[in-house]
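User: quick one, fold this
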Amino acid sequence: MGIIDKIPFLRNFSGASRKKESYSTLEITTVFPCAVSCKICPQDKWKSAYKGKHHLTYDDFCKVLENIPKQVRLDFSGFSEPFLNRDSSKMMLYAYRKGYQIVLYTTLAGFTTEDAETIKEIHFSACTIHLPDDTNFKVHDESKWLQSYELFAGIVKFDNAIYHMGRLSEKIKKEVPRICRPPILTRANNVADRVIKPLGRRKGAIRCAISDNLFNQNVMMPNGDVYLCCMDWSLQHKLGNLFEHSYETLHDSAEYDRICQSMHDPSVETICRYCERCRGN
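Assistant:
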């Protein structure tokens, strides 16, 4: 343990300085549960753990935004498809006009012409489309999905179109550019064993390769509760609630301190030791 970790004042001062310089993101989960139910998303774990409101309303989102600094990037993704909430497009536009960077991950389930009209002025910092396949994300009417895709692609410049399992139809492969197939993640062993083999527990001192142990890439539920990251589908690490407190309090909470301690103390159990993003330190 270094001198900064031994002296709380120095530890807090150092942490505050590093957090200010880091690239923070907040994933916005607008609806519970997700009707798409992809196999790579452990919806069963989320359904068992989450007990809050099912929809984030536009008014509540506007209030929450008052507690979030402008430098925090807002990712409309979280644990469910954003467009399954009829207010999501309005939330994106409101935040964009307020000066926030907006990122979108979408299957296009629920996407409508009204959504297209609402988001057409948004310059997304990044956008990824999740494609339907024959195994993981199935659609009943591929032609209808392609109509939604054509509407979306006509107004939004997306970066990638991804799929994780199974096969794509020839029609989708012909119509959609920039297709890639990233690996499936265990989501800290939350995804079912039949989908991907669980990871063993990593030993010794560790670090988060994505946040560099700053733990500032968090995910918000429809009720304002904020959890550690997009791996925390079982909701084990609650940092706070943005309906009730400011964004800064998330990283000054007792749970945040416990997660930080777990990086060098293997006796403190967290999901981090079962995560693909975990590295030896």
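User: anything notable?
Assistant: The first helix runs from residue 3 to 6.
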